[in-house]
Write a structure and sequence with these properties.
Mean pLDDT: 88
Order of helices and strands: EEEHEHHEE
Radius of gyration: 16 Å
Number of strands: 6
Shape: globular
Number of helices: 3
Structural class: alpha+beta
Low-confidence stretches: none
Helix content: 25-40%
Length: 136
């Protein structure tokens, strides 16, 4: 099984930031490997590096999570689903898969993906490591 990640967008008054954290499967559901409190603590030095504080974060939005695809796939397979909704869910599933692929490529070094974002990856020692600055 390949390693899976959750991609999150940090919304603040500062730069565009995309972070990646590892996931593990527990009881059939994907969950964070680091605790959420550890993720927030690790964001503090990231925010300080941009001359911001943690309280300047307005919210942290889910960009992609494996459960997104699993829920859509389960809905698509529902025999009672209206055909028009099935088309909509298939499109949403394709969009979710494309979002994941784009995020994976960005973190692998594809500069055409998320060129205006700062990319940070979770390290095993509990800090975020800068992967890439915005391009251009």
């Amino acid at each position: 099984m390949r390693e899976l990640f959750q991609y999150l967008v940090v919304i603040s008054g500062g730069p565009l930031i995309l972070i990646r954290i590892p996931l593990i499967c527990r009881s059939g559901r994907w969950g964070h490997l680091p605790r959420w409190s550890q993720v927030l603590k690790a964001l503090t030095p990231v925010m300080h590096s941009h001359h911001l504080r943690q309280k300047d974060i307005h919210r942290i939005d889910n960009f992609w999570h494996p459960d997104d695809e699993l829920r859509l796939q389960a809905d698509i397979e529902d025999p009672n689903l209206h055909p028009r909704r099935k088309v909509e869910y298939n499109q949403a599933l394709d969009d979710a898969r494309q979002a994941r692929a784009n995020a994976e490529r960005a973190f692998e070094g594809d500069e055409s993906r998320f060129p205006k974002f700062w990319l940070y990856d979770w390290r095993d020692d509990g800090v975020f490591e800068l992967v890439r600055q915005p391009i251009g």
